[in-house]
TrEMBL record:
<dbReference type="GO" id="GO:0005829">
    <property type="term" value="C:cytosol"/>
</dbReference>
<comment type="similarity">
    <text>Belongs to the phosphoenolpyruvate carboxykinase (ATP) family.</text>
</comment>
<dbReference type="InterPro" id="IPR013035">
    <property type="entry name" value="PEP_carboxykinase_C"/>
</dbReference>
<feature type="region of interest" description="Disordered">
    <location>
        <begin position="112"/>
        <end position="133"/>
    </location>
</feature>
<keyword id="KW-0312">Gluconeogenesis</keyword>
<dbReference type="InterPro" id="IPR015994">
    <property type="entry name" value="PEPCK_ATP_CS"/>
</dbReference>
<keyword id="KW-0067">ATP-binding</keyword>
<dbReference type="GO" id="GO:0005524">
    <property type="term" value="F:ATP binding"/>
</dbReference>
<dbReference type="InterPro" id="IPR008210">
    <property type="entry name" value="PEP_carboxykinase_N"/>
</dbReference>
<keyword id="KW-0456">Lyase</keyword>
<dbReference type="InterPro" id="IPR001272">
    <property type="entry name" value="PEP_carboxykinase_ATP"/>
</dbReference>
<comment type="pathway">
    <text>Carbohydrate biosynthesis; gluconeogenesis.</text>
</comment>
<dbReference type="GO" id="GO:0006094">
    <property type="term" value="P:gluconeogenesis"/>
</dbReference>
<dbReference type="GO" id="GO:0004612">
    <property type="term" value="F:phosphoenolpyruvate carboxykinase (ATP) activity"/>
</dbReference>
<dbReference type="Pfam" id="PF01293">
    <property type="entry name" value="PEPCK_ATP"/>
</dbReference>
<keyword id="KW-0547">Nucleotide-binding</keyword>
<feature type="compositionally biased region" description="Basic and acidic residues">
    <location>
        <begin position="117"/>
        <end position="133"/>
    </location>
</feature>
Amino acid sequence: MASNDGNNNGEFSFNANLGVVGRKGLAKIQTHKSKNGICHDDSGPAVKAQTIDELHSLQKKKSAPTTPIKDAGQGGAAFAAAVAVAQAADDVKQRQQLQSISASLASLTRETGPKVVRGDPARKASETPKAHVGHHDYFTPELSISDSALKFTHVLYNLSQAELYEQAIKYEHGSFITSSGALATLSGAKTGRSPRDKRVVRDETTEDELWWGKGSPNIEMDEQTFLVNRERAVDYLNSLDKVFVNDQFLNWDPEHRIKVRIVSARAYHSLFMHNMCIRPTPEELEDFGTPDFTIYNAGMFPCNRYTHYMTSSTSIDLNLSRREMVILGTQYAGEMKKGLFSVMHYLMPKRQILSLHSGCNMGKDGDVALFFGLSGTGKTTLSTDHNRLLIGDDEHCWSENGVSNIEGGCYAKCIDLSRVKEPDIWNAIKFGTVLENVVFDEHTREVDYTDNSVTENTRAAYPIEYIPNAKIPCVGPHPKNVILLACDAFGVLPPVSKLNLAQTMYHFISGYTALVAGTEDGIKEPQATFSACFGAAFIMLHPTKYAAMLAEKMKKHGATGWLVNTGWSGGSYGVGNRIKLPYTRKIIDAIHSGSLLNANYTTTEVFGLEIPTAIEGVPSEILDPANTWSDKASHKETLLKLAGLFKKNFEVFASYKIGKDNKLTEEILAAGPNF
Ligand SMILES: Nc1ncnc2c1ncn2[C@@H]1O[C@H](COP(=O)(O)OP(=O)(O)O)[C@@H](O)[C@H]1O
Ligand SMILES: C=C(OP(=O)(O)O)C(=O)O
Ligand SMILES: [Ca+2]
Ligand SMILES: [Mn+2]
């Protein structure tokens, strides 16, 4: 637009006769005509395209083929032939992959799976990578007998983080890039797991194998109802324009690696699992074959409340015999991760391997520590330690080979995250990381980690290698220290206690933590939670099975048990304060270094816990909670109250035998509070 020169009453005039420079007009652009009369803007080399579409097609090239080209010498013809052979092998494998995906997505009542095609339905021909276009980019089953068979299901298979970002930002509401490069997403109405909506198929096999009934997380459903929900999920997924498929691994122990396939409707879910499971190399992916376990995540679609066993519109259904899980009515991504963890709690003990709800890290000298604890007690925070190698933050296996992480990523809580206190987690929140339900500035896209407007349970899911001192592969030798974390909002458990084996088992089976109750109605009583094996929501067998395995392994490998309170000191929630993270870190340092093992100890009343009298870097007066309460009577009262809750909780286990002989069971029963 031309500007107003101010001298012609605001009227725009253009006098073509003014020549090169108008008296008060704009300079006329002078072009230098070449001999043939064509204008040139020839400051740089010309683009090698004749059209915009052609230009765009040049931008992307085909990913390198994964089948190694067999040495064909330098001869041009022989080399070309070898390339063709490798390409043909790739095509066959690609076709097998699509066939396998079609089989996964097959309705069980129709004869064949859907027609599947690779790639984004919105992708224009001009965006197809140049050079090679695979001959087998789609798969059509032989028979097609329904309307759904008339359409293709577009499959976005193991997309990269960058591709998933683009999908999320283009198509999913609430997806944004934050200032640090992470992808902010919303998980919808559910911002946490729904344990009461979890169902497990009770059939002839699982009837005898699993833990059912009171206290068990396994709420039964029958095979038929599972199939109804599976069909609902599969039909929903096939009705979409496109689905995401992830083929990945669980467990870094190569002998016990499990192949998982996750079919989902959202790029957010695909990116979450990309980060959380173990990522196959291109070669491993090509030879992936049939998965050992498949998740159908139709979380955006509810279950049918008229379906038997359904008590809400959410259902997370596990069928161990079919090796399948169906998710309806919740988009909370943690359901997938913890659902697979439940599967591992079934598969691994069958192989004499103990599955653990724990974090794990290793010192430079190879000393391994496990960190057990319920949600919010510090597994992720304390296993992420700048002075040690991170093996994993949440799910592990302990086998004859030592420990191995089940996952390929971490899932950290972000509420009140601080760059100073937790620099490694802070720095992991960068490009590729999924940030769930956080609040950010609409313009700068800077995240406000103190903001809990969406939920208190804000999360970051990142690949484990985003932590600089991750131990890759994520395996280590047998643990030296087993640390049980409890966030005791009553403020009566000591910051650290050394446990004997019976006490370790007592506290492992109890699985105690107490968190503060909802803050909406002001200060309330702390809420005690007991969750067997520090993960009752995920165990599939009776808790004593895992406990017996832990006792056996700790004894065999000489591991020491510790109880660490990451919760309150100087009074309960409302009076005292949460123990400062730097103090807890000093306590953990002293456990790792071995110095705490040789400290002087005294024994507490009621719980009979051995507590050290001094730890470097920690004020000695906080080591015994009795010292920190100004109101001594109130301390004693609270201590007895908590001890009573422990006793009551343990009653159900008193009639169970733990391990091979009764001796251990008796010792464990005696290791609880005495009053
Ligand atoms: N003394 C402490 N020890 C451990 N964590 C603490 C402590 N004080 C505050 N926290 C906070 O408590 C939370 C612990 O959560 P997290 O490590 O994610 O637990 P988990 O992985 O066991 O679910 C973190 O947000 C951490 O910053
Ligand atoms: C992912 C979860 O685990 P944690 O809180 O232990 O990190 C969860 O409980 O949903
Ligand atoms: Ca190949
Ligand atoms: Mn965690």
